[in-house]
Amino acid sequence: MKARGIRRFPRTPTLTALAIALGGFALNAGAGDGTAARGGDALYSQPGAVSPDADRLARELGDDGVYRFQARFRDFEGRPLAIRFDMPAAWSRQATAEFGVSDVERKARYNRCQADPDCTWSREWRRYYHDHGMRLLEQDNGRLKMVVDVPAAVARNRDRVRPVVRALRELAARNGRDTQWAMQAAMALVQGGMRYERPAQVENGRKILDFYPPPRALEQGYGDCDTKSALLAAILQHLTDRRIVGVHVPDHYLLGIAGEPAPGQRWIEHEGETYILVEASGPAIRPPGDVSDQTLAALEQGAGLRVDPMY
Question: What tens digit of pLDDT does each residue of 188-233 get?
Fold first, then answer.
């Protein structure tokens, strides 16, 4: 693709500078309003080779309060794979309790703050959102918008996905493969071994904005783009020391993994480092650097872009 010049977008305090390379087309852009990916992202990843064994993450709850998971999926070459792992059901409950905004909790916190002369509510309610995995971003009109803090969900739950990581390492060892192969197996597992489905806006009285933390996503067996991206990032952080970023475009969320892209792989540059793009949402099985036409179009357009460092 021929270079078509440089388009520039105004920067605001909530924006992150981003240089995007699309097959030789370079674009300097700022992120948009910083909102988390929302419904409509199914358009970004549906086309492609869909695994015939999709939707095969199954679980049973034992009398000991431990989930026994079985996952069947296919790698990028179409070969069938399977893993088993256990996860305490309490981990999902804990992750769920830590995430989301409850009006009841917020009111109780407000009342405590009002009774404390040293408490400043403007600071306290921002802290409440932060403590519950949300961010407040200022929009162009000056109003604040609540969005999911995906990097925080990854950081808080990376230890809770260790059973999946062990299963993937054991799978790689049985097949005589290396850690790089285990990373690709993790991508295929999240893309094709879990259903693509959007969580609810509100669950059990908590505003969760269509997002599940990683243990909850495993328990439910599904997620959309940001839910699956968070799960995949939490797994990959155990398998590589390379930096990982989240990449937001309007109505969609994907990952970038630091590295030198091979010919044909799509990538972005952030703060002087190159990141190979990875689609997590599925159900299309896409290797690193293979993104949908809709994702490319959104990146090329440049509006609404944000990079979320997960390191």
Answer: 999 999 999 999 999 999 999 999 999 999 999 999 999 999 999 9
Contact criterion met (CB below 8 Å) for 165 and 172: no
The pairing of strands 134-138 and 144-148 is antiparallel
Assess contact for 70 and 82: CB atoms under 8 A: yes
Q: Residue 162 in 3-state DSSP?
A: helix
Classify residue 10 by burial, with Cβ atoms within 10 Å: 0-12, 13-18, 19+: exposed
Q: Are 155 and 182 in contact (CB under 8 A)?
A: no
User: Tell me: the pLDDT tens digits for 72-131?
Assistant: 999 999 999 999 999 999 999 999 999 999 999 999 999 999 999 999 998 998 899 999
If you write DSSP's letter for every residue of 199-240 in order, what string do you get? Answer: PPSEETTEE-TT---HHHHHHHTEE-HHHHHHHHHHHHTTT-
DSSP alpha helix (H) spans, the chain: 42-45, 89-98, 103-114, 121-131, 150-157, 162-174, 179-192, 214-220, 225-236, 293-301
Sort strands 222-223 and 195-196 into parallel, antiparallel or unpaired: parallel
| Range scoring the smallest mean pLDDT among 20-34, 47-61, 262-276 | 20-34
SS3 291: coil
